[in-house]
Amino acid sequence: MGNACEKSTISQEEVPNGRSYGPQYRKNVMFLCNHNSCRSQMADGWLRQLRGNASVGVASAGIVGGTAVKDGAITVMKDAGIDISGFTSDAMADFKPEDFDVVISCCGCGSKLDGDKEAWKKRPVFQDWNLDDPPAIDPGDLSAYRRVRDESKAKVQELLDMLEKPYGPQYRKNVMFLCNHNSCRSQMADGWLRQLRGNASFGVASAGIVGGTAVKEGAITVMKDAGIDISGFTSDAMADFKPEDFDVVISCCGCGSKLDGDKEAWKKRPVFQDWNLDDPPAIDPGDLSAYRRVRDESKAKVLELLDKLSV
């Protein structure tokens, strides 16, 4: 993440095709405002600064149409080390909603996205930030511009944090793999889904019903043999997640019976399956053959799941 105190000159011509968004990015964000003159421009500048190496494309536009970037916005962003003086003020009509995964109404103007504009509100993620309009309220010392600039930065960082998660509303469907301790079977299933989903919009996470311990070395080894690196995966507790964030819940180890009481909500998601895979650490003879068998069984089940979810 860049330091906002360092000078950062951001060009609208950032990529070979001359666009700062597109299929070269994993996710694309559109910031909308009435005229693309202030709030959406500041948010656009912040995202380019804060995304670091994250593959997130960005553009901004005016719902009514582009006018010009406000001098006040340029000044306060420059004070924060970000040069948006070369940004253009563009009209939403010059963009296509299907090119964006995330649409942010910066000014509470989501109500204007009706009729033939409604497609913008139907992207996977739509948020209405309702930031104040600095030109309308600034007393002349740019204090309103600075406040909204800083509020915009905080919201952009929250958005980037959300997009970096392997699951969430940015995906069409989200899958949770559960096991007792999130150490082997659920980790392998998690790795397989990330590998096999291709460009399909499926988010994924895995967790331990009892709690996370550590990813088993045997699981790391046999998945690496299959070309999948799960060595950087963390072993997490189910208690750190919310069932309502997931459309599909898979009990990898036959541990569905433990999902009772306050945990029962996990079994009541739209899809719940209990795969009842064997526990490799408990049965492996020492040659990783049990790990490999369960790895391959897990792959087959993940492929079946993806086929079902793709319908």
TrEMBL record:
Residues 1-21 are annotated as: Disordered. InterPro entries: Ptyr_pPase, Ptyr_pPase_sf. The keyword Ribosomal protein does not apply. Residues 1-14 have a biased composition (Polar residues). It holds the Pfam family LMWPc. Residues 27-162, 173-308 form the Phosphotyrosine protein phosphatase I domain. It comes from the Eukaryota. Keywords: Arsenical resistance. This is Glutaredoxin arsenate reductase (Low molecular weight protein-tyrosine-phosphatase) (Protein ArsC) (SynArsC) (RSynArsC).
